[in-house]
Specification:
Structural class: mainly alpha
CATH class of the largest domain: Mainly Alpha
Strand content: under 5%
CATH architecture of the largest domain: Orthogonal Bundle
Helix content: 55-70%
C-alpha cells in the first residue's frame, strides 16, 4: 500500500537527503582531490570538479612514477612501498580478526552455557572493562610489549587485541544465551562433550553473529592507527594507516602532496569499501544491534 505524501514526510526526506549529502561530501572531495593535478590545486580551491584531471597521484603512490616525474607533479619524490604496507595491514587485520573471534567465542560460551563459581562476577568485571577508555591501557600495554622485546614486530601489534575484547565477549554471549538448552542436553545424552557441543552445535548455529563480529573486528583493526604507530615504527611492519601519516610528512618544497595523500587514502579504503559492498546488509544490521558506528 502506497503511503500518502504529507508535509511531515517531505520535511523528513529533505532532512535525510541533506544529511546524506553532508556525509558523502568528504568522500567526494577525496575523489576530486585524488584525480587532480597537485600543482594546480592551490589555484582552484573551490572547484567542485577535478583540477586538470590526471592519474599522476595514483602513479606516485603506487611507485609507478620516477622521482623527476613525481616532483614535477608536486610530489615529494620519495619512494612509497605501498604493497608492503598493504600486505602488513592484511596480515595484522586477518590474524587479529581470526584470533579475537575464536577466543572471544570460547569465552562467551563459558559465560553463557557453563556453570561455574563466580561466573557472573567475572563477567561483570569484563563488562566494567568496557567502561575503561582504551587510551588508559595504551601505556601499560606498551611497557609490557617493550619488556617482552616485541616492539617493531607483528606480534607486538596484534597481541593486545588478539585474545579477546569485552565487547566481543558480550556480543557473542548475548546470542549464545538464546540458544535452546534442550539441544545441548540432547547432545550430552548422546555422549557429546563441551568441545564437541561448541564446535558441532554452538558455532554452526551462531554463524550469523560470528560473521558480523568478524566484519566489525576486521574494520576496526584495519582502521587502527595509534597502537600500530606506537609499536610498529619500522617499515617492515608498518601498516597502511601509519604509512599515510608518513606520506603526509614527506612534504615537498611547494606544499603538501594533497592529491597523492587523497589517492593513497582512497586506495587504503578500497578493501573496506569492497567489504561494505559485499556485506552491506549484515554490517547495517550489526550497527543496529550493537549500537556502534
Amino acid at each position: 500500500m502506497r503511503r500518502e505524501l504529507n508535509p511531515g514526510r517531505v520535511v523528513a526526506w529533505a532532512c535525510l537527503i541533506v544529511l546524506m549529502l553532508l556525509t558523502l561530501f568528504p568522500f567526494y572531495w577525496m575523489l576530486r582531490t585524488a584525480f587532480s593535478d597537485n600543482t594546480q590545486l592551490p589555484g582552484h580551491p573551490s572547484s567542485l570538479l577535478p583540477v586538470e584531471s590526471t592519474l599522476g597521484a595514483f602513479k606516485r603512490v603506487l611507485g609507478l612514477s620516477s622521482v623527476a616525474e613525481a616532483q614535477a607533479q608536486g610530489g615529494s619524490g620519495a619512494a612509497v612501498n605501498f604493497w608492503l604496507y598493504l600486505r602488513n595491514s592484511l596480515i595484522v587485520s586477518t590474524v587479529t580478526t581470526v584470533c579475537q573471534v575464536f577466543f572471544s567465542a570460547l569465552a562467551a560460551y563459558a559465560f553463557a552455557r557453563l556453570r561455574w563459581p563466580g561466573r557472573d562476577k567475572v563477567f561483570a568485571l569484563f563488562l566494567a572493562a568496557l567502561m575503561v577508555p582504551p587510551i588508559f591501557t595504551l601505556l601499560p600495554n606498551f611497557a609490557l610489549i617493550k619488556n617482552l622485546g616485541l616492539l617493531n614486530s607483528f606480534a607486538g601489534i596484534i597481541l593486545p587485541t588478539a585474545l579477546m575484547t569485552p565487547f566481543a565477549i558480550f556480543f557473542l554471549r548475548q546470542f549464545f544465551l538464546g540458544i535452546n538448552r534442550e539441544l545441548e542436553e540432547a547432545a550430552m545424552i548422546d555422549g557429546a562433550g563441551h568441545g564437541r557441543i561448541f564446535f558441532g552445535l554452538i558455532i554452526p548455529m551462531s554463524a550469523a553473529p560470528i560473521t558480523t563480529l568478524a566484519i566489525l573486528t576486521y574494520i576496526n583493526s584495519w582502521n587502527d592507527y595509534f597502537w600500530p604507530l606506537l609499536v610498529g615504527q619500522q617499515e617492515k611492519v608498518r601498516v597502511l594507516t601509519v604509512a599515510l601519516g608518513v606520506f603526509r610528512s614527506q612534504t615537498p618544497q611547494g606544499g603538501p602532496d594533497w592529491a597523492g595523500l587523497m589517492a593513497a587514502t582512497l586506495i587504503a579504503a578500497l578493501p573496506m569499501i569492497l567489504l561494505f559492498v559485499v556485506f552491506a546488509r549484515r554490517i547495517t544490521n550489526s550497527i543496529g544491534f550493537s549500537g556502534i558506528k
